[in-house]
Amino acid sequence: MAKKLIDIMDTSFRDGFQSVFGARVLLEDFIDVVSVAKEAGISHFEFGGGARFQSPFFYLNENAFDMMDKFREVVGPEANLQTLARGVNTVALDTASSEIIDLHAKLFKKHGTTTIRNFDALNDVENLKYSGECIKRHGLKHEVVVTMMELPPGCKGAHDVAFYERVLRNILDSGIEYDSVCFKDASGTSNPHKVYETIKMAKRLLPENVHVRLHTHETAGVSVACYLAALDAGADGIDLAASPVSGGTSQPDILTLLHATKGTEYDLGGLDIEKILKYETFFKEKMKDYFIPPEATAVSPIIPFSPMPGGALTANTQMMRDNNILDKFPEVIDAMREVVEKGGYGTSVTPVSQFYFQQAFNNVMFGKWKKIADGYGKMVLGYFGKTPVEPDSEVVKLASEQLKLEPTTKTALELANADPKKSKEYFVKMLEDEGIETTEENIFIAAACKEKGIAFLKGEAKINVRKISQMEDKGLNTTKKGGEKMSGSYTVVVNGKKYSVDVVEGKDANITVSKTDEPKEAPANTQSAGGEEVCATLPGSVFKIVANVGDEVKKDDVVIILEAMKMEIEVVAPKSGTIKSINVNQGENVENGQLLFVL
Fold first, then answer.
1. Domains and their CATH numbers in the chain
2. DSSP state of 392
């Protein structure tokens, strides 16, 4: 009896990079690996979209479109190159207008994409209709998605088989044109039995020839069992990654599944173990200088209680590590449970995963529900679409009061089309004001990446990757006893003063201070002179200073833009007045409560 051929998509160069390295891997360091993967027999790759669109502009000083073109050149015209899109958000964190959604599909087709996997974190089918229409209009294959996760114990009303059946029926009833269906569990928290019953349900509802696949992560340690359950239920494809960007917060390893399916009726893409082993050996060698955070390789039994997807988990821990607050991470993950319970059960995948994390972070730093995060607040108020269940009424009330927004029942696309700051013309003018050519690519870069996209196009972007050799060059000893890598950069407080300290671990496990810098004196213009002080409400870095000392500003005018937890946070003037002092510098890391400017 012939074995069933299962399609394998190699996610190493998109989700793998995001889940392990925060999507920060330079093209020159991995493009040779793509060639070896092709030689190993892989012909279906996830090669862009998601965070791998923004990150090249944000952290690598690279153009994501150029990366996509090079990838296509290496793998040839026949390979299935797939990207990830967030419905009406495309590859950004906020809703786009119809013009930008259409431009997304047009440009991704132009730059080598075969298939776009299209999902909505709220499972709101309204957010998939127009985005799916654009994907098909421009000659791409449309993989429509139902997003999955496990709810914290005691929660009911969504994320069971009956819920996924309702979502799938809504997709079918909507008339959305699609080529395949994916069930996507970005947090890897669904249990194998639910996966089996869900795939069986889908196979029963869908036409016989529709390709159905499962996407999951190893975060909770059940991914292999889930994949085997999906295959037994009739799934046609699964997503896998190659070491060193497999397992842990990423997809399970190709070799692992080849081993797990020995003696079964499944043939994983006709792949040969020895060729895959050669591919992974080469991959490890090429990536050996990239710092792998310990949490990227971990499996966590508590993730199902506070579902945090792999890609967001490592991105957030790295940001917390950069801001010297990684010690708060366990508290934030614990706080996520209540945030999910009261937020309407949107799936924990970007952008909702970031909304959950930001709100949990605020609950830890400022007290429960004392500060509603902008994204989380807008989500419970309906600005990103309809949540699977009604959010907690008290949280909705707090969000409305703090954000000064009323709940809405309009679709996310209706709201975006009514916002002049999301129109194509707005981004054209943004480019013209900076003297940048208004090509379609540049318009989309500005729309998806905002100020950071403009910085890249002006030649002002910086490279910020985490390489072990660079950490050592900066005086950091990154080798722990036993060979484990660690960062040695800390902030300590002594007698109320903060010091930046780099440490090394000696032979006898003694900690030695290699460098201590007292904080620099504030510039002369930092005196408040009786003005109103505006301080940072969370740690981050100063991405852009919009206003200057002496400028007249109106209430709610943007003065400074901070970057924190994958979001750009606008710090606005609390009232009309004159900027008396700017107390931070562009690119500077700031701490919670640090003075930013005086009005």
1. 4-291 (3.20.20.70), 468-517 (no CATH), 524-598 (2.40.50.100)
2. P
Q: What is the band of 169 on the pLDDT scale with cuts at 50, 70, 90?
A: very high
- In whole angstroms, how large is the CA radius of gyration of the chain? 24
* Cα angle for residues 215, 85, 37 (degrees, 5° grid): 55
Poorest-confidence range of 85-94, 119-128, 305-314? 305-314
Angle between helix 126-137 and helix 161-174 axes, rounded to 10 deg: 50
pLDDT tens, 224-273?
999 999 999 999 999 999 999 999 999 999 999 999 999 999 999 999 99
3-class DSSP state for residue 517? Answer: strand
Q: State the Cα–Cα distance between residues 420 and 426, nearest whole angstrom.
A: 7
Omega cis (within 30) before 293: no
What's the rounded Cα separation, in Å, for the pair 135 and 104?
Answer: 9
**How far, in Å, CA of 486 to CA of 467, rounded?**
12
The confidence score (pLDDT) of residue 525 equals 34
154 exposed, middle or buried (CB, 10 Å; 0-12, 13-18, 19+)?
exposed
What dihedral angle (degrees, nearest 10) is formed by the CA atoms of 211, 212, 215, 216?
-150
In this structure, are residues 182 and 202 in contact, taking their beta carbons and an 8 Å threshold?
A: no
- Our measurement of the distance from residue 246's CA atom to the centroid of its chain's CA atoms, rounded to an integer in Å, reads 17
pLDDT at 538 over 90: no
Q: What is the pTM of this model?
A: 0.85
* Partner residues linked to 571 by β-bridges: 560
β partners of residue 475: none
Selection from 348, 270, 281, 276 nearest residue 316 by Cα: 348
Helices vs strands, H then E, count in the chain: 20, 21
Query: Which residue type sits at 138?
Result: H
Read off the tokens for 579. 């900027």
pLDDT of residue 266: 97
Average pLDDT over residues 152-161: 93
What are the CA-CA distances from residue 429 to residues 3, 420, 446, 452 (Å)? 57, 12, 10, 16
